[in-house]
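Regression check, flavin-adenine dinucleotide case 479:
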Amino acid sequence: MAERMLKFVTVPQQMPAKRAAAERRQDFDEIYREFADAEAARQASRCSQCGVPFCSVHCPLSNNIPDWLKLTAEGRLEEAYEVSSATNTFPEICGRICPQDRLCEGNCVIEKGFESVTIGAVEKYITDTAFERGWVKPGRPREERPESVGIVGAGPGGLAAAEWLRRRGYQVTVYDTYDRPGGLLIYGIPNFKLEKEVVLRRWKLLEEAGIRFELGCRVGETLSFADLRARHDAVLIATGVYKARDIGGPGSGLPGIVPALSYLIASNRHSLGDDVPDFASGALDARGKDVVVIGGGDTAMDCVRTAIRQGAKSVKCLYRRDQANMPGSMREVKNAQEEGVEFVWLSAPEAFLGDSAVTGVRAVRMHLGLPDASGRQSVDPMPGSHFTVPADLVVKALGFDPEDLPKLFDEPGLEVSRWGTVKVNHRTFMTELPGVFAAGDIVRGASLVVWAIRDGRDAAAQIDSYICSKAAPVAVAAE
Ligand code: FAD
Ligand code: SF4
Ligand code: SF4
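Current build output:
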């Protein structure tokens, strides 16, 4: 092992090549190129094969990272793929969009002094290679089971659960409001972070495994929740969080001020070739406009970088704290700055200017005060520090809350927290309603793809136990 591994002292960290910012601004393609085979093996060989791998400890899926790095360094890619896909249903997606700097790579022990192993890029490389070489097969079960599970929501949480349940032989139907599965993977996250083809090829595999999709079906409207429960032995709610947080103040209702998700959905649908009237009319297209995005999270970063690619005249991001205190990934901020986004730190909007449509944002400078009980510094406006930013498109990216599911589902017995997230038993993933489980953002609040995948995987195991525990006495009686 020692010959091939532990090379972090002699082999420097190397990410896959990043396309030049000037080129990136012109299209919606992913910004990183693929590793060449030899470079992937070299980078994997930097791993020191820790006895207690902190990378795995801090990966929400507890991926067996040292093993697949070693197999990659040895050129045993098919085995590396087997190991990486044993814990992760969508490794090519996590390799692309996990905030690795906060998870596996941020906790790699060689990070201190030598820069971490490029775990995410190797994970992506292994799975993309597996697809190219035909090693990725649909997860068909060895034996069919008669019981069925209905999954509400085809985001990463719902899809991960669907795949695990199908592998165990269940008859699985996934219901989604949208016309394509993927949830935020397909309509929220832009192509330059995750090419849509990557999500669509997973959809194909899931269908080939025998998972049924009822698309264009909004549970609670198209199909009642009671009817859904009657159709299935168990139900998983994985509906995500979609209610955009809003901003008030004078002029906040002016045309030209739009919610982030409407803006991103229009852009993603346009890239997928769909007919999008609000994009065609220019209402959700940044071309030629002065764009101001309000917010400092990953959604705001996706909006500013989308506006750049659409050919905006200028793109500014207004955030009320400073760079060190923003919630978005530093990697994404750096990418945005390279592409020409201007960050206006410590600034908050007070009013929106314009008569028939927005023409500017009046903002005020903020300063960071003393930390509160949670340790987070307060932010206060600085008197007399107003300034105006010209804008003919303002995108509000202030976060998301869950919608009122008990009301939508006409099911008051579905307990929710005071934030509206669905309450579950954290061991069994079951809600207060027998046979109804929940997973992903609708339980956690807005989170990450990798956590939704983990919840989907764990909820599937619990649904399996629940159905088996109910089925066992029936099987004995039938004999
Ligand atoms: P979702 O992906 O939201 O999927 C829920 C699905 O349920 C949707 O398809 C929806 O149509 C469907 N649905 C909802 N209600 C109903 C109903 N009543 N009937 C039928 N179907 C219904 N995370 C990362 O890890 N990395 C990133 O780079 C990243 N970027 C992001 C960028 C943006 C713009 C946003 C908004 C989020 C981003 N996230 C990112 C967060 C990540 O996308 C979510 O945490 C993750 O998608 C949650 O998965 P989920 O399965 O719980 O829900
Ligand atoms: Fe890292 Fe995410 Fe892959 Fe886990 S799933 S190893 S956190 S990139
Ligand atoms: Fe390898 Fe870093 Fe994980 Fe240690 S923490 S096993 S060096 S990737």
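Comparison notes: Residues 47-50, 53-55, 65-66, 108-110, 117, 119 surround iron/sulfur cluster (ligand 3) (CB under 6 Å). Residues 474-479 have pLDDT under 50 and may be disordered. No diff flagged against the previous build.
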